[in-house]
Amino acid sequence: MTRDPRTLMWAEACALLDRAEQLHRQFFEPTREGGRHARWEPPIDVFETERQLRIIVALPGVAPEAVQVQTDSGILTIVGSRPLPSCGENTKIVRLEIPYGSFERRVALQLNRLRLDQRELVNGCLVLTFVKLG
User: Fold this and answer.
1) Rounded mean pLDDT of the chain?
2) What backbone torsions phi and psi does residue 34 show, to the nearest 5 degrees?
3) What is the average pLDDT across 20-32?
4) Are 70 and 62 in contact (CB under 8 A)?
5) Are 121 and 67 in contact (CB under 8 A)?
6) What are the pLDDT digits (tens) for 95-118?
7) I want to staple 128 with a disulfide (CB 3.0 to 4.6 A). Which of 51, 55, 73, 96 is the partner?
8) Are residues 130 and 112 in contact, defined by beta-carbon separation less than 8 angstroms?
9) What is the C-alpha separation between 13 and 4, in angstroms, rounded?
């Protein structure tokens, strides 16, 4: 019995996608209001130039006042919450892919060499611009 390599590759790709979806459900689960523990970790992009370090944090639908940025002991911490929308009584969740609830993201940085220069929420992303010191 011979096996077509394309079929094997397709089956492997489908298995990887199933595993990714399973991990997504594990890490992005909704929480009840008042929960204290972070339930999801927003993805980030980091860009560096000779003079700046820019961190972009994906926070779709998060209000600016719902985000706190803290720096302490070389750790940048971004915390906040994205509440589950109220869609009225008798609403059944059919599909939930966007993470809701408390979030936290920690990034180790050489904060003694950086100064937070600009913080803005643009198009669903928190953009933190650090200036490199001396």
Assistant:
1) 84
2) 90, -5
3) 56
4) no
5) yes
6) 888 888 899 999 999 888 999 999
7) 55
8) no
9) 15
